[in-house]
Amino acid sequence: MPIRLEHVKSPTADARALVAELDAELNGVYSPEQAHGYSVERIFQPHILFFVARLDGEAVGCGGIAFEDGFAEVKRMYVRPAARGKQVAQAILARLESEASAHGVKRLTLETGDVRHAAMRLYERAGFTRCDAFGAYLRMPKSSIERSVFYEKRLT
Questions:
Q1: Against a cut of 0.70, is the pTM above it?
Q2: pLDDT given for residue 27 in this prediction
């Protein structure tokens, strides 16, 4: 069965569960100061689109895009371990890129952690390149972003 991406406009049980799983995975590696993921409440704002990926009807992943001044940022990308390797992350990322392009965004950005090697490979294969800190990260103390890896992709 194909991967289906559902635009979620409010914090559903599936959205909450996926974000909680992502937080649990990240909290085991990064200090609270180094955690930059949006809370469930912050995700569901007018300038953010959030999607839940379903495989055989089951929620298996999520991702969002926050539209900022002049660029957009990928937020809360996550795929449950059992669904990894099944093209779910690629489908989510492609949808986020499509949404950015549809909104006239020319630069898509993201932040990930230094030990998120699979995520970094995914982004690099999708055409993202490393870049300097951007947006709100520029105002953070160095200790807050010392384990961050920043990426961008120019959209046409």
A1: yes
A2: 87
